Amino acid sequence: MLTLNALKKSFGARTLFEDATLQINRADRVGLVGPNGAGKSTLFQLILGNDTPDEGSVTIERRATMGYLPQETAPVGDETVLQLALATSPEAVEVRRRMQAFEAGHDHESDDYHEIEARFEALGGYRVEPKAKQILRGLAFRDSDFDRPARTLSGGWVMRAHLARLLVQQPDLLMLDEPTNHLDLEALRWFQGYLKSYPGAILLISHDRSFLNELIGSIVDIRNRRLRRYRGNYDQYVLQKAAEAEQQAAAYKNQQKEIGRLQDFADRFGAKASKAAQAQSKRKQIERMEKIEAPEAESRKISIRFPQPQRSGRKVITLNNVDHAYGETLVYKGLEFAAERGQRLVLVGPNGAGKSTLLKLLGGVLPVQAGTRELGLNVRVGYYAQYRVEMLQAGRTVLEEALTAAKGVPELFVRTVLGSFLFSGDDAFKRIEMLSGGEKSRLALVKVLLDPPNLLLMDEPTTHLDMASIDALIEALEPYDGTLVFISHDVHFIRRIAKQVLHVDSGKLTPYAGDYQYYLDRSASDAAAAAAKAQSPAPARTVDKAIPAPLAPQGNGSGQKSLHRDIRAQQRIVERLEKEVTGLEARQRALTEELEKPDTYQNPGKAMDLNREISGVVEALERATAEWEKAAERLSELMPG
Fold it and tell me: b/e map of 603-618 (b: 16 or more CB within 10 Å)?
């Protein structure tokens, strides 16, 4: 469907691509990766025809359609959110407008009406609008947003509306540049599921490795002016690339050793008449060699040396009976929240549920309208805002801004820290208004790290960071011994950092005393239980469905009697394990219910004891469930038929 043949593209003296070749077929899922500045976005512009290659060609299959979502901004006019989602092409907009005009005038008999009606139906007709609404809801728009002027939305929501437009359009090649930047975790999970069954090809730029792992069938790496394709997802690409680098390093080393040996001979005996011919032969042998390129130097990694903060008291922060509203919109009523030293808590939940509001209440960015906010002993709060501009002064340079956070820290140390965040040399004197989104994110992180808090609140810290920066942030936060509460849509980051999950929805906080996988398993189990309860008033157990009823022996043979005894014995094992699983599940529910009670947090040690006990119960439940599954499988094998 798409063929790039021997592309070359230069800007001045810098060459981005040279002899770059790529083919994308229908239904391919391709991730585009490479260092910042390697040319990923430029390649997109070449494919779209917005730029032309210096050499080579870009060939698109005839009648194939393309759709493109840029990383930062997309145009918006006076249309509503729904109209924007339906604006799949200029023709679709015009045809829909004319149909509405005909219907408003009740002119259903003219030839013009029948002609435009036929075209309207060919473009999807009235079937498109329900699809657009379904997609908008999946991306967390409310029905009340559909008739809202799109220009009144924030930039992130405008990008979501444009993403909905592309999904409604359903082009043959969907080109997405960092599409997850503007999505919360719930919308991301929906979007990821939607793309798994997308019928067209997908070409994707993303720094979200979990997203790439779930969707991508091959990775194209832009490096050293070439496009190199690797089969498999991102993790498989990393393994292949590491093995390839190791092989190349060994081959390069061996070749250099051989070249050194030949050159040494030529240098030593080149002046001797008796050996001159041999020496010249060695030189020609070196010239004829197909030289192996030197191993690529590893990209400069951001080195974060996160100073450990002053130790706080065990109870770090408490919100008691807190109310908060935005005008007439009530977000929290009687909110209760407590965090203890060393917790690593991720806030999850639908968009607009109050996650950022909770983080701002904890950070003191929003005043408590009713109730109390209490900090524990020696607690210092650091708030890393989702909108980095809130933390930065546009008129300052990078160095000036960093120095404002460095209390009593020498300028040399500040320059060293900035250098580790890729602000080296003259970059330290860039003005903040000239920085990219990723640079602003890194500078905001520098400010936090130069004055380390023991209660760190982070709202989408990985947005606009590349993979190396995300890895460095993870490495910095893993040994951090303060208290961390954060919001993120990056599943890889969440899995590495979060130890507890707090679900936020409609002003209600539901704690999960386990990591993100535990939250997914538990919430899926709760949803299934709720659905089963809604369908039938009688309680139903899921595990005993797989346990067959006892069988009467068929015939009188000793083999049949022996089989029947084995079946009965295996059924008893399954029943015993089922009771064990049921008991552990009940204990886990009881402990979680205790954790959800506000009174629990009035006793300083009770919540911690409950968390410890839940951890033990979860481990025991995992072991018992695994044993039960094996026993049930064995029983199934024994059953006749």
Answer: eeeebeebbeebeebb
What pLDDT was estimated at residue 548? 43
Q: Residue 9's closest CA among 53, 66, 57, 63?
A: 53
Beta carbons within 10 angstroms of residue 353's beta carbon? 22
pTM: 0.70
Distance from C-alpha of 274 to C-alpha of 597, rounded to nearest angstrom: 95
Which residues, at least 6 apart from 17, have a Cβ–Cβ distance to it below 8 Å? 7, 8, 9, 39, 42, 43, 53, 222, 225, 226, 227
3-state secondary structure of 56: strand
Taking residue 391's Cβ as centre, other Cβ atoms within 10 Å add up to 18
The residues near 322 (Cβ < 8 Å, ≥ 6 apart) are 332, 334, 335, 336, 337, 361, 368, 369, 370, 371, 372, 373
Residues 375, 317: contact at Cβ < 8 Å? yes
Strand partners, 281: none
**Cα–Cα distance, 226 to 537 (Å, whole number):** 63
Question: What parts of the chain have a pLDDT lower than 70?
Answer: 36, 106-111, 296-306, 386-389, 525-564, 593, 595-605, 607-609, 611-612, 615, 636, 639-641
Tens of pLDDT, residue by residue over 146-190, are 999 998 988 889 999 999 999 999 999 999 999 998 888 889 999
Instruction: Give the pair of three-digit tokens for residue 322.
Output: 């807190």
Q: What is the DSSP string of 443-485?
A: HHHHHHHHS--SEEEEESTTTT--HHHHHHHHHHHTT--SEEE
Backbone angles phi, psi at 406, to 5 degrees: -95, 95
Tokens of 217: 């069938």
